Amino acid sequence: MKLSNLRHKVDRLDDQLVRLLEERSSVAREIGRLKKQDGKSVFAPAREATLLRRIEGKLRGGMDIENLRAIYREILSSARQIQGGARVAYLGPEASYCHQAAQERFGATTELVPCPSIAEIFSAVDRGEVDAGVVPMENSGEGAVGATQEGLLTTGSWVCGEIYLPIRHALLTRNATGPLRVLYSHPQALAQCRHWLATHLSGVKLVEVASTADGARRASREKGAAAIASPWAAKVYRLHIRNRDVQDRPGNSTRFLILGQDAVPATGKDKTSLFFTLPHRAGALHRALGVLAAKKLNLLKVESRPAPGKPWEYVFFVDVRGHLDQPDFRKALLRLQNETQDLQILGSYPEDR
Length: 353
Description:
By secondary structure, the protein is α/β, with parallel strands linked by helices. It has helices at 3-38, 45-56, 65-82, 97-106, 118-126, 146-154, 187-192, 194-200, 212-219, 231-236, 284-294, 327-339; strands at 87-91, 111-115, 132-139, 143-144, 158-166, 170-173, 182-185, 205-208, 225-229, 240-244, 253-260, 270-277, 299-306, 314-321, 341-350. The protein folds into three domains: 42-166 and 257-262, D-Maltodextrin-Binding Protein, domain 2; 170-244, Periplasmic binding protein-like II (D-Maltodextrin-Binding Protein, domain 2, 3-Layer(aba) Sandwich), CATH 3.40.190.10; 264-350, 2-Layer Sandwich (Alpha-Beta Plaits), CATH 3.30.70.260. Strands 1, 2, 3, 4, 5 and 11 form a six-stranded mixed β-sheet that branches.
């Protein structure tokens, strides 16, 4: 078949796609009207997760699944905009990894709102100023983000989703060459690159800032300054990439949580996040986790953190596969409540992978 014939075929398919997208937009508009009438949020994470899994199952091998996801991310973003739009808070400024995670999850047409701290993201969601918030929860190499754990202890919002983002750090500078005197970055990013920095920039002063993007912004304004940030930040702040992939470990990734106002219905592939404290009794943690094991619930993570204002007492953060809507899961939580103190459910939500 000639190239011209193939292009003609593509044109006909594009015509069909446009008509179908317009029809889909009309249906989305009507869904938005009903949501508004019923007082429901435009952002529906369970529905979106179920939709994506369903269409992925329709593939027959002629298209990469990630490309399909990218296309539908923008289709869903457009649908939310038609229904009134969604505002999503993230740890700013622009071009932070949190910004990248939010845009990859919510799409280009979503209004993304930068916040200067993780605490302010929680506040914005709790006050209803935004429809959702994206916060970094843990890194594959450096572990949990303390500010997010602290926010989870007091928030009135629900965890309604998660995002896994590969992290590829770069050394960014204002000038392509020349000596460096100071390097700015987020503490987690500096920790993820500590060996590389010790080997290549041992004499450079390291300064911790609120985000990798803030580090890039500062580096763009100072002679002899550098930043550890994403290659995307180099484009935004017009910096040179001196070195790529300066993270110490390959496969470095960060898990982000999505915060929202509403609990999320079950999708069939969910996890639940919760936290609790324990009485000072021998075997207390063993008995608590044994409740989950007895119900054959898959424990995905357990992590402790000092309890605020209570020296030598600890809060345990737990992720377990399952959903609050499942009867056996609810029974397990009732038994868990008897073995723990201050048990709080943070949310059940679709697994991202």
